[in-house]
Specification:
By secondary structure, the protein is of the alpha+beta class. The chain contains 5 helices and 11 strands.
Length: 254
Amino acid sequence: MGSPLGRVALGACLLGAVLASGCSMKPPEGPVVPTPTSVTRDNPGGDARDPLYAALVRLRDERWSRRSDRFRTLDVPLADAARWLRVRFWGYPTRVGFRYGKDHLAVTVVAYDEVDAGQDTPQLCLERFVDKAMRVAKTFDVNVGELRYAAIERPKPPASLRRAPILPPFWDPSPIPVVSTDGHFGTLLDDTNYLTAIASYPSWPGTCLVHAFAVETGEHLELARQVVDRWVREGAPTFAWRRGLKAAPAHENR
């Protein structure tokens, strides 16, 4: 994470920007579909002729599973979960962050912040996060496209929780506000495009909980869009605090 490009990637993670190694290089020779033994955490595209394409296919098609933060307070849904590495973003503390592939082919981060009373609604939390992320993106000369706002519905909680008189904040029935955008980062040596989506969730009073996800597009814009759309449709609605929490977790980041 110490290279200049790596530092750019980490800084831009607040917007979900994925700034990996240059995609203009000729892809290595190899099969269209990677051999299973070549697929690793550092290289989820394996020995495929186009590793980015193969990695995006995995994110589009592999089953969902859950990973936790270091504090064991969050359930973070990830497609192809075993291939994601939990990482720390130096200079930009987050509750938890994961990267997909050594070159940051995809990134997901969670922010958990304390805010003033009255500023803790999901919509206000999302706007606050996006405003901060836009400032970070500008610092690293990331060109950000149009911000597109929408809302997604939560799945219904299990019947046992529906019978409870007070539900944990992650079962709040309110729609989850989401913003999506695209971005571009270019230098003399690198030219990278990405798609990102950011969701904001009901949390305990005086706190904000925001989850961002992004993928590099390379030459596969439509495939990358399918990956992000799947995250919005299937992943983001199931992100939650872990069951059993009785009070707001301590405000700790890493």
